[in-house]
Amino acid sequence: MKILVYGSLNVDLIFSVDHIVRPGETISSSAFKRSAGGKGANQSAALAKAGMEVYLAGKIGQDGLFLIDLLKSYGVNTNNVIIDEGSTGQALIQVDKKGQNSIVLNAGGNYRITIDEIKKTLKYFSIGDAVLLQNEIVHTKEIMLAAKEQGLRIYLNPSPFDEGIKSLPLELVDIFFVNEIEAASLAGMMIPPPNLPQRGRSSLAEMLAAQFPNSEIVLTAGEEGAFYAHKTAEGMHTEHCGIVEVPVVDTTGAGDTFSGYFLAGMTKGLGPAECLTLASKAASIAVSRPGAMDSVPYERELA
C-alpha cells in the first residue's frame, strides 16, 4: 500500500523563550533556529522513518529547497512537491522552558496548490492506497472527494481546527487523528471541558465513533496518553495507552510523529492497542528532542 501525504511544507523559525509571550509583551529569546516543518512534511517524515513507502505532495518556493533534500534523506518520495516562484510556508514557533509551544502560521505555497495539480497527483494512486490530510493546505474537500472516488482510504488530522473542517465530507474519513480540543469541536462542544478525567476522554472518543460510524477515532490527550474508539457490529471497541515518561524538551511535531507511527503499525498488521503503544513510544522520543521532523525517531530506535 502506498500512502500519499497531501499537506504542508514549512520553514520553521523557532525561538526558545522563558515563557510564551503575552499580549503587549516583548521578550528576548535565548536561542533561535531555522528548521524544517509543516504538518504534511512532518507526518511524511514520520511514516518514512517508520519504514513505510510514503509520497508527499504540496508546494514550496525556492526558499524551501532544503526541505526537499532533507525529506529525500529520510526516504520520502517528493516527486509531487511542486516548486514555484512564490514563498514557502512559514511557522513562527515559541518554545518555552517546559517544552510547550505556540505557533503562528503563514501559508505561503500551501495555499497556492491548484485543483489541476491535485488531479495530476492522484492519478498515480489507486484502490488500496491511502491519503493522509491535515488542515494547512487549500482544496482539502476536493482531495477527499477525488481520493474516495478512486478507492483510496482517507486519514484526516483536522489540525489546526477551524469551522471550515465541518464543511468537509467527514463521512468519507476512515481514521480521524484528533487531540482533545479537536475532538470536542468535532463532537459539537462549544468549550472543551477543562481537566477532563480519563473516562471523559474515552467517552469523547466513543462519542465521535458513534457520530462517525464508518470511522476509527484516535485521540491523543497529552499526559493522559491516547485513546482509540471504533463502532463495530459487535459493539464499541475501545483501547487506551499511557505515555512513556521522559524529560520534555520540545512538543513540536509530537502529534505528527504519533500519527505517522500509528499508521505504520496499522499498515504492518498491528492491532489498535499495539499501534497506540508503538506511536506513544515514538512520540515520547520526539518530545525529548528539539525540532519537528528532525526529532522523529527511526524505527530501529524503538527496538
Compact summary:
By secondary structure, the chain is an alpha/beta fold. Helices cover 30% and strands 25% of the residues.
Instruction: Write down the overall mean pLDDT.
Output: 93
CATH class: Alpha Beta
Alpha-carbon Rg, integer? 18 Å
By DSSP, the count of extended strands is 13
Mind summarizing the main beta sheet? Answer: 9 strands, mixed
In total, the number of domains comes to 1
Could you name the key traits of this structure?
8 helices; four-stranded mixed sheet; nine-stranded mixed sheet; alpha/beta; 303 residues; globular; UDP-N-acetylmuramoyl-L-alanine:D-glutamate ligase
Care to describe what's here?
The protein is an alpha/beta fold. It has a single domain, classed as Ribokinase (UDP-N-acetylmuramoyl-L-alanine:D-glutamate ligase, 3-Layer(aba) Sandwich), CATH 3.40.1190. It is built from 8 helices and 13 strands. Strand 8, helix 4 and strand 9 form a beta-alpha-beta unit. It is globular and about 55 Å long.
